[in-house]
Amino acid sequence: MTANEYNTCVDQYADSLYRFVLKNIRDKDMARDVVQDTFEKMWIKVENVESEKAKSYLFTTGYHTMIDKIRKEKHATLLEDHHEELVQTHNKYNDLKNVLSRALNTLSEIQRSVVLLRDYEGYSYEEIGEITGLNESQVKVYIYRARLALKSYIGSMDNVI
Predict the structure, then answer these.
(1) Residue 25 confidence (pLDDT)
(2) Do residue 111 and residue 143 come from a single domain?
(3) pTM attached to this predicted model
(4) Residues 65 and 99 in one domain
(5) pLDDT tens per residue across span 93-131
(6) Are 46 and 64 found together in one domain?
(7) In terms of DSSP H, where are the helices of the chain?
């Protein structure tokens, strides 16, 4: 990859990578750090990265960098810790974005990541597997369980509208 191709990657993918990381860790400063570290890692290996695979490389590296930061900060939580909270909600919400954000916050880090990669960024199951290091079956299971948890948290559409 040339320096021009690298700069093009920064222009094309920095915002979507930032949004992906921010949705997962919900800390703007930490998200910026992860994105910066990701682009730094790509720059270090710029000669080994093909420009056609730059987006996949960035999201894979960004994902792993984010996981490392989360583990260091000990913010990781398990879905099992939230089962009692997920049973039912009786709040009436008017802001769908707020409802979805709260629902995503109840998911474990891996479930939130795969759902965001699939539904928000539009990756295929195979691509998500490459990014997260999971096989395709595991990706499907995590997405299925995450969607069930989201459905349980949100409840019926009457609670949202």
Answers:
(1) 82
(2) yes
(3) 0.54
(4) no
(5) 457 777 788 888 888 888 888 888 888 888 888 888 888
(6) yes
(7) 3-25, 28-44, 54-73, 83-86, 96-105, 109-115, 125-132, 136-154, 157-160
Angle between the N-to-C axes of helices 54-73 and 3-25, in degrees from 0 to 180, rounded to the nearest 10:
40
Range of the domain at 39: 3-73
Distance CA 1, CA 103 (A): 39
pLDDT of res. 18: 92
Instruction: Give the CA count within 13 Å in the CB-facing half-sphere of 110.
Output: 13
User: What per-residue confidence (pLDDT) applies to 74?
Assistant: 63
Cα–Cα distance, 149 to 31 (Å, whole number)? 25
Domain end (from 73, 101, 135) = 73
Is there a single domain that holds both residue 65 and residue 119? no
**Residue where one domain finishes, among candidates 73, 99, 122:** 73
Give residue-wise pLDDT tens across range 79-94. Answer: 444 444 554 545 554 5
Question: For 22-46, what is the mean pLDDT?
Answer: 88
